[in-house]
User: Fold S-adenosylmethionine-dependent methyltransferase from Escallonia rubra.
Amino acid sequence: MQNILEVVDKKYMTQGATSGSIEFQVFFSDHASNDFNTLFSSLPPSRKYFAAGVPGSFYGRLFPRSLHLVHSSYALQWLSKVPEELLDKTSPAWNKGRISYTSSSDEVANAYAAQFQKDMKIFLNARAKEIVVGGMIVLIMPGLPDGVHRSEFPLGVLDDSLCSSLMDMENAINGVNLKCQSLLHGLINESQVDSFNLPVYAATPMEITEAEISSALESSYNKGTQLIVALKRE
Amino acid sequence: MQNILEVVDKKYMTQGATSGSIEFQVFFSDHASNDFNTLFSSLPPSRKYFAAGVPGSFYGRLFPRSLHLVHSSYALQWLSKVPEELLDKTSPAWNKGRISYTSSSDEVANAYAAQFQKDMKIFLNARAKEIVVGGMIVLIMPGLPDGVHRSEFPLGVLDDSLCSSLMDMENAINGVNLKCQSLLHGLINESQVDSFNLPVYAATPMEITEAEISSALESSYNKGTQLIVALKRE
Assistant:
């Protein structure tokens, strides 16, 4: 945060402003149920900005048109929800025995991809209404290069690890090997594993471009809004 | 809150704006340690404003210059701290046996009055730097009419009640009558009662005017800032 402010301050200084003459206000946005008090009490007392907390999902409007710089770091991989098809046992996208899309069927992966497109469009449309003329949006999120198979996304490792953990615990209890969808005896059952899915997605550059083109943010380019997206391969 | 927004919205409508075309952002300010999560989760979901929480004491800067309307309701009777003279046993303002100034000596009352002047000036100076040209400050706080003795402030009743409670509890334990500074046997001792003081003050209209005149807010009048203070006698 301090780095961003220093860069902006320096830029203004090159335009003739005195250092420190620009006032900064930083809004920290999170779900209303998350712990804002810990956030507030952990802010450095000598900070050179005015701080505020904004409750709510970023898949919706959070601000009036007032923002100069929007930054989201490692948050947009979280979808607004699990794609609905995954909750339907009769759907080809029913994700039996897995908790993400990375090692699942194309139907499951397509449902995740479609949800990402919907969510990203909503996110960009909301920000398009909140950012001032000449503003900037900088997004960092985990992603994959175009053409790389989804199983390369490290979430797959997490998925496999969780499955392995379940297996290990089950083995410790029963002393037998079970498939990944094996269950922690007495605590969770098979249908609970089948219906649980992590709402996490790793987009590719092409998918970001697609969301951008279909969002209202595109029209904001006429007003000079810049969008910078860094997809980090973990 | 909703009432204020409706009034402003109506005013804009009389100037030709469409209803709902004005976006409102409401900042709720409180100490960082207070419970912002309960506040955020209790905001009406259908609210017609964007909400934000701002941590920190209002006896200091909280915002960049951006506010159109500042409203404080029943908060400015809380001083930033107990006047320092009251913590000095050798001072004539040592408030032995009492927890507020309302039934105390003139020295104690003068120390409270001086602290109120300092605090109110800091409050108004901070807001003067935060409010936009043509903005408005509306303050509601408990107060007393000019010329009315401080013992008329209902806090005096609270003070007396607390003393009475201490007395009653002490009587119940010891079966004897004691003075107001009597102590809850074994839980608090005399010096703790003597050193505890409520940092609460009820100002008069003259005191508000005095703080206003000595604050930077006065110069803001040239820029059209309006200050409205309602002192409510409880």
